[in-house]
Write a structure and sequence with these properties.
337 residues, mainly alpha, two-stranded antiparallel ribbon, globular, binds magnesium ion
């Protein structure tokens, strides 16, 4: 595989995962083209929203996983591009709906759809992307299992969001509760992207299962790092607000672990009683979570998931797509946005 420095993800040239892991993935350019083709609208306002979303870019992790999974064994590139595009559309739709739920005003360094056009229009636009995704999946005309794999992942994501609401501001939940939730809301779509690519290839069934497990481990690590960055990053680097989990009452692993600390645990619980949390309290809680070792603990947990993900890949022939999947796993741990 040749090396490239970046690929276009929307017009803002946010480096995508393809560039980050140093592989040339020309299919990703085709995915960008298909995204523009399927999101287009005759309605002026809808078209402006489409441009806003597509120019927002994104890391294009899910399409890359579809493509690399399909490359592990011989596969049909046309179908792969359609399914890779669908995976990104589902992801985009979920972020639009997520920003409405979280009341978030910024995504990919740009105003979120809800902050610019309101919740009503944003829900509809998310639905539009979601429908476009399933139109593409239906259009490949073979492998109906890919449609059910993706549909199941979407149900999981919705269940994960319900779980997140059920456990909101619950400081006595277990680490298992948190892990089940992130598996549902994040890891299942990442795993479904891997499995969909695999199903479009001649991969033996037992390896499809292995790739599902790789996706789950990668996805859990990805969400844990996301939750760490909410405590440690700078909004200008991250492209979205930080401290938002604390503000929304979402209890993530760094906080959950710090609550078990013999000294900081009680202090943090007291600070969290001052609802709604103001900016100063959010900063104070964040500092206490770091001092209690919650961030380090979460990072170690993410690292263990990545070790497992890479061990699973050892079942596959040592080819360039396998090396790229290992590279993605390593990068998830070090990403800053
Ligand atoms: C981001 O999490 C959100 C998700 C991983 C999933 C959101 C899923 C839904 C809203 C349901 C599915 C809906 C459709 C239309 C497919 P986060 O809030 O932790 O991350 P963030 O900091 O990037 O917002
Ligand atoms: Mg969110």
């Amino acid at each position: 595989m040749s090396v490239t420095t970046e690929h276009r993800t929307g017009s803002s040239r946010i480096p995508g995962f393809g560039a980050i892991v140093g592989v040339s993935v020309p299919e990703l350019e085709l995915v960008e083209k298909r995204l523009h083709e399927v999101v287009v609208s005759q309605n002026d306002l809808m078209q402006r929203v489409s441009v806003h979303i597509l120019e927002g870019g994104g890391k294009r992790l899910r399409p890359l996983l579809v493509i690399l999974a399909a490359r592990l064994f011989p596969s049909d590139v046309r179908a792969v591009v359609e399914v890779a595009t669908a995976s990104e559309l589902i992801h985009m739709a979920s972020l639009i709906h997520d920003d409405i739920i979280d009341g978030s005003d910024c995504r990919h360094k740009k105003p979120s759809l809800n902050s610019r056009w309101g919740n009503h229009l944003s829900v509809l636009f998310g639905d539009h992307l979601f429908a476009a995704a399933f139109r593409l999946l239906a259009g490949i005309g073979k492998k109906p299992r890919v449609i059910s794999v993706m549909a199941k992942a979407v149900s999981c994501m919705c269940e994960g969001e319900f779980e997140q609401m059920s456990y909101s501001n619950d400081y006595d939940q277990s680490e298992g509760d948190y892990l089940r939730r992130i598996r549902l809301k994040t890891a299942e779509l990442i795993a479904a992207s891997c499995v969909s690519g695999a199903l479009l290839s001649e991969m033996p069934e037992e390896l499809v299962t292995s790739l599902y497990e790789y996706g789950i481990c990668l996805g859990c690590a990805f969400q844990i790092v996301d939750d760490v960055l909410d405590f440690t990053s700078d909004p200008s680097v991250l492209g979205k607000p930080t401290g938002s989990d604390l503000k929304c009452g979402t209890v993530t692993l760094p906080l959950l672990n710090s609550l078990t600390h013999p000294v900081y645990g009680q202090r943090i619980r007291e600070m969290l009683r001052r609802q709604p949390l103001d900016e100063a309290t959010i900063r104070a809680v964040s500092e206490a979570v770091k001092a209690a070792g919650g961030v380090n603990y979460a990072h170690e947990k993410a690292s263990a998931f990545i070790d497992r993900a890479k061990r699973i890949l050892m079942a596959f022939p040592k080819t360039p797509p396998r090396t790229a999947l290992e590279g993605i796993a390593d990068y998830v741990l070090t990403r800053a946005y």
